[in-house]
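Support request, please re-run this one:
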Amino acid sequence: IYHSQRLPALEFCAMAQSPLHSLAPPLEAEATGQVAEPTRAFEVHRRCLGEYVPEVRRLLADGEVCTVNCGYMKRQRDITVDMRAILVDWLVEVHAAHGLRSETLFLAVFLLDRFLSRWSAKPRHLQLLGVAALLIAAKFLHERRLRNSDLVRLCSEAYTKRDIMRTEVLILKTVNFRVFTTTAVDFLNLFQLTHACPEVQHSLALYVLELSLVEYRMIRYTGSYLAAAAVLLSHALLQRSPFRTPLSAECEYETRRTIKTCAKDMCFLLEGARHGPRQAVARKFSRPALHCVAKLAFGSCRPSTTASGSCTRRQGVKVKTRPKVRGSAAAARK
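Re-run finished. Output below.
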């Protein structure tokens, strides 16, 4: 199933991910306050991929056909949104402890949401569904660091290996064995190549994406919207130079309004990440290997409103505000 559904261009993009990340330079000294630009080798790799970008973009869009009903939680009688958030937060801890790829985590949560959108689950079976979905994603992406015995131990032996295997079969039958889908990480890797994003910006965008993964209301956005909004938000927060090509114009299937709305929702998640009840994502991205992006202080991401029509800048986010108009609506239109 893996080799029949995984397309060659996507394989090339996945294989190029690791060396490209190592070519992107880290953040410069804090005294300069600037983000280091990509190295020359990174530019060479990006130019070599240039002729394949339209094909890769088309293949990523074709792989995004599977979507999740964003209102499936209303039909669940026994589980709530908070239960799902606690489960995904725990999966982030398991994912970080075993050093799995980001694609594995996003694919596991996507499989979990697809299953819950078709079946009702009991609270005692929710953790079992989570570990089974994570194991399917790890096998599908050839991750050999995760085993059934490890998952049984992590669940405090509440389930057996046979229970996990049966749940795997149930999930696969529910999704009709169609495991592959294009996740937000796939689009993020493409945007990093096409826009020459440094490694620290990639870590910040991935941090915002994993925060969105825990939040249930963010599943209404597809992976392409989430990746585009995360790149734009991280670009503004790090105060980098403007893109050579507008991100929303490059993705023909997206609209600028939806990307802006998604970016605003991500701002609220980023503001409450440090003091929220679930801290697995923040702890994961507080490590030096991920540039400690969870510890960066950006202030308030939300735009501030003023009485004048000038542009205001708050921690790297430039926002145009509308002037206050006195009088009736007819006078305002005039």
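Residues 138 and 144 are 7 Å apart (CA to CA). The longest strand covers residues 311-314.
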